[in-house]
Amino acid sequence: MTSIDDRISRHIREYDGQGWHRTGTTVDLESAHWLAGLVEEVGVEPVLESFTLDRVVPGESYIEVSGRRIDGLPLFDGGFTGAEGVHGQMGRHDAKIMLVEGSPILAAEALDDARRSGNYRALVFVTNSIGSVPGLAPRNAPDFTEPFGPPVLQVNGVEHESLVEQADAGASVRVVVQAERRPGEAVNVAAEIQGQDRDLPPLVVMTPRSGWWEIAAERGGGIACWLKPCG
């Protein structure tokens, strides 16, 4: 590998090894200082821009059905339940607890229509990534500052067949979606590099740094590209 390849590989490995990069967490803050240090290494002065937010901290979240407990994750811009959760019949259409299937992108309209309808006490969202690869593929929270609708439990796609069978049978279920909002602080990393022609408007290069879990596969390339203009 070239020296550039080595550097990119090292940066992505270091980022991957830091842990879960959820916004406003200790790992997220440490990651910001790590990135600022990389900027300093090449002689550019970084700026740490802090901001406040209400972090969503998930608690126990699961569905109980036919003697099984299936763990999941709350939708961050939806409602939450208490420890007792919501009881009712699950179905794919007319039940009070609705089962929604699909990827976070392709099923977005159906999910949001159900959330806004006011017809459901809770929703169970069986997630898949695009291409129907099983796994927990959480949806982003575009309405994070204005959450709405009933509690939504996001569940790993490996449970798809089982939950569809239970929904079609109208099974009685219990859905628990616990989380709390806590004040927090996060940091953006910025740097300014002078160009050759200062009469031109600035060119802004930006990339996300936080996200679900380790997320190096999604964020690593963007961070590498963001660092390149620095040196």
Characterization of the model:
The structure is a single chain. The protein is of the alpha/beta class and 231 residues long. It has 2 domains: 3-44 and 203-230, no CATH class; 55-182, Glucose Oxidase, domain 1, CATH 3.50.30.30. It is 27% helix and 32% strand. The chain has 5 helices and 8 strands. Strands 1-2-7-5-4-3-8 form a 7-stranded mixed barrel. A hairpin with a 3-residue loop joins strand 5 and strand 6 (133-134). Helix 1 (3-17) crosses helix 5. The radius of gyration is 21 Å and the shape is elongated. The model has no long low-confidence stretch (mean pLDDT 94).
Average of the residue pLDDT scores: 94
- Give the total of domains: 2
How big is the Rg?
21 Å
Kindly report how far apart the N and C termini lie.
18 Å
Defining traits:
alpha/beta, Glucose Oxidase, domain 1, 8 strands, 5 helices, elongated
Summarize the model shown.
With 231 residues, this protein is α/β, with parallel strands linked by helices. The chain contains five helices and eight strands; from the N terminus they run ααββββαβββαβα. β5 (122-129) and β6 form a beta hairpin.
Ordered list of secondary-structure elements with their pairings:
Elements: H1 3-17, H2 26-41, E1 46-65, E2 68-74, E3 86-91, E4 97-102, H3 108-117, E5 122-129, E6 133-134, E7 152-155, H4 160-168, E8 172-191, H5 216-227
Parallel strand pairs: 3-4, 4-5, 5-7
Antiparallel strand pairs: 1-2, 1-8, 2-7, 3-8, 5-6
Helix pairs in contact: 1-5
